[in-house]
Design brief:
By secondary structure, this protein is mostly helical. It is built from 16 helices and two strands.
Length: 367
């Protein structure tokens, strides 16, 4: 089934087709037979059907096609935010190549010039192509969502921390007031957001925020999104949930979450993230069905169009039914054609989490 992301609904078929053909044409210069190259083509196809509303394969494109050259004339009247969202698709499909081609920055700067956008993430891919992984990690943070001035302070308020955080991944292991708010969620009515997130933590053996051994509040914040968007707590689910988060955030810098999760769980170019809560485990986007799952997560995120990371105090909705909160945040169902195990699916939890969590609050075992 073909979908269309809300950003691109104002674009004509010919405009969207030119974008999709251009993505394929830029990919042509890569070594497509390597695993990441094959995944790149699969992802571009998924982007076409899921975000651009067009089903088109690489084999259908003429080598002499002038789509890239005509892209400027096709899109010159399109608003800057939409052109920037389109350009981010070019960044994403080049990001999954391992390693990125040496000419990746020149290709992307050419596309950026055609689309008339300025995007600092080009430098991140250039640094990856030069094996400058440490510099790339710093740049990705500095130019991304969490590198914005004032973001840490805003996050502290949304996460109800009772200390002044100085880093987005600073731990808060001695905060009895915050801890008590998490523990009190047990008393919320069945099927409310509060009760379900409590069960989610109990079933997976997660340590509640505010005490020793817990993850930092920012990572805890994303757990609410796992539950609401119904993405598993496997690595594949992390790819989906951060693709959703990065796309839902209206600020274009939210896109940094997509690049971060790809660098962790596809290329492995980022050693760790989230204060060490997530560590590199490459190759997961290459698994069957994952490009389609990521594309669908991007689509759902754009429909949501809300800062689900630092833009909401979820404790304010703890007594609301989970489905009502989804409606409030415009979190639509997954594409029924995409096989994506959710939070309560038998495959929606890792073996480690199943072994360490409370079995009474876990997804049922597969029959």
């Amino acid at each position: 089934m073909n979908h269309l992301a809300p950003d691109f609904k104002t674009l004509s078929f010919s405009q969207r087709e030119a974008v999709l053909k251009s993505l394929f044409l830029i990919a042509r210069s890569s070594e497509q037979q390597r695993p990441s190259g094959i995944t790149q083509l699969t992802l571009i196809h998924a982007i076409g059907t899921t975000l651009l509303g067009i089903s088109l394969d690489d084999s259908e494109i003429d080598l002499e096609d002038s789509a890239l050259d005509s892209l400027h004339s096709e899109l010159r009247t399109v608003s800057t935010p939409i052109r920037h969202r389109l350009f981010q698709l070019f960044i994403l499909v080049e990001m999954i190549l391992d390693p990125p081609p040496k000419d990746v920055s020149s290709k992307l700067r050419y596309a950026a010039a055609i689309l008339n956008v300025d995007d600092g993430f080009i430098d991140v891919l250039r640094e990856y192509s030069q094996s400058a992984y440490g510099i790339a990690a710093t740049d990705l943070h500095r130019k991304g969502y969490l590198g914005k001035p004032g973001m840490v302070e805003k996050g502290s308020e949304m996460m109800r921390c009772n200390k002044t955080l100085t880093d987005p991944f600073e731990v808060d292991e001695d905060d009895p007031v915050l801890l008590s708010q998490w523990l009190e969620l047990e008393n919320c009515n069945p099927d409310t957001l509060g009760r379900k997130i409590w069960e989610y933590y109990m079933g997976r053996g997660f340590v509640f925020t505010g005490q020793k051994g817990s993850v930092n509040p920012t990572i805890a914040q994303h757990d609410w999104v796992h539950l609401l968007a119904d993405y598993s707590t496997t690595i594949e689910g992390e790819l989906e949930v951060f693709s959703f988060i990065g796309s839902a955030i209206p600020d274009l810098k939210g896109f940094s979450f997509l690049l971060t999760i790809v660098a962790l769980f596809e290329t492995g170019n980022l050693e760790s993230w989230g204060g060490g809560a997530l560590t590199a485990d490459p190759g997961h986007l290459q698994k069957e069905g994952m490009p389609e799952r990521v594309a669908d997560a991007i689509r759902r995120g754009r429909v949501c169009n809300f800062d689900v990371m630092y833009g909401i105090d979820y404790f304010n909705y703890k007594d609301e039914h989970v489905d009502n909160v989804r409606k409030m945040l415009n979190i639509i169902p997954k594409d029924f054609n995409v096989t994506s195990p959710g939070v309560w699916h038998p495959e929606g939890i890792t073996e480690y989490q199943r072994e360490n969590g409370d079995h009474d609050y876990q997804p049922p075992l597969a029959a």
